[in-house]
Amino acid sequence: MPGRFLYLYYMKRTNCKIAFNDVPLMLFAIPVLSYIIPIVFFGCRFNRQPYFRWEEYPVTFIVILLLWLANRYILIWCRTRYPLFKDVRKRLFVQASSMLIFTIVGDNFLHVILRKTIFVDRTVTIFDTDQLISRAAADVFCVIMIVAIYESIYFMHALKDSVEEKEMLKRESLQAQLNALRTQVNPHFLFNNLNTLSSLIPENPKHAMDFVQQLSKVYRHILDVKDEKSIPLKDELDVLNAYTFLLKTRFGNNLDVHINIPDEKLQKKIVPLSLQILMENAIKHNIVSSDKPLQINVFTENGSLVLSNNLQMKNQVNESTGIGLENIRNRYRLLGDKEVKVIENENSFTVSIPLIEN
Questions:
Q1: How far is Cα 304 from Cα 352, in angstroms, rounded to an integer?
Q2: pLDDT tens digit string along 132-149?
Q3: CATH for 186-354?
Q4: Rounded Cα distance, 29 and 146, in Å
Q5: What is the three-state SS of 116-128?
Q6: What are the beta bridge partners of residue 286?
Q7: What are the residue ranges spanned by the domains of the chain?
Q8: DSSP state, 263?
Q9: What pTM was estimated for this model as a whole?
């Protein structure tokens, strides 16, 4: 009983690398192989020599069982050693070579040892040429069959997981874009901008006209890019300047925004609306006052676009709209393997978003 529980525990721990429960496969394949290998590769028959002797069946069964479990371990080790997709060819070569060499050597030694210990057959030898050729053919067949079965199921599961993950990322990307649109048209945003506009009209009509134009530019951009996965950095910065104009009109000298982007970086691409989301979060979560002006810096560094602000958190934060760093991260995951990086310390909050090559 302890051995059975140990075996079940081992199988449960390793199934994550196998990608499926292979116990039913082994329960079916090992007894069947133990029956057909002597017939197909050694010419054994029930009605003529060499006779198929049932007393030798346990030996064949034990050999195939041990070799199957050993090859299973080699397969798991190779998948652990070479987990990345780019290493698939190398993994398959190392895996198949190791399994084949081990199976050929192990098969011959196990048969000799078991026949000498169980049947006390002193005539059996590992250097029987006919036996070596037949066993080598059987071993090649078994290894090819094991690799084909396990790898086909493994790749089917990997493909299914990849498709499901991509669909999930697409849904999250669409949800992020929808939430970004909702963020900009939520009542608070409209209320604040309309309040600012109403105070500008009697005091400075020209500034009020500029304010309306910049507000229109922001909304037009949101509608234009809502279905885009990435846009040129130049386009996003143009709208960020318009968005900054709205915020500066509202907060005055309490908000200080510096944008310093080299010209050679302007044709790189980023996820649309990401800068607006980051700036909106900075305004929403930090105090912006004459006593504590908020400073926001936008610049490039190490192939990324960086938005950094001094940290002066509000005691009470407005209700979250659901837009945040996780949405930006998910949209970047849909485009590649580059990650959004966040660094927070006592004095500042910095977000680095990758610049995408054309």
A1: 6
A2: 788 888 888 888 888 888
A3: 3.30.565
A4: 10
A5: HHHCCCCCCCCCC
A6: 313
A7: 2-164, 186-354
A8: G
A9: 0.52
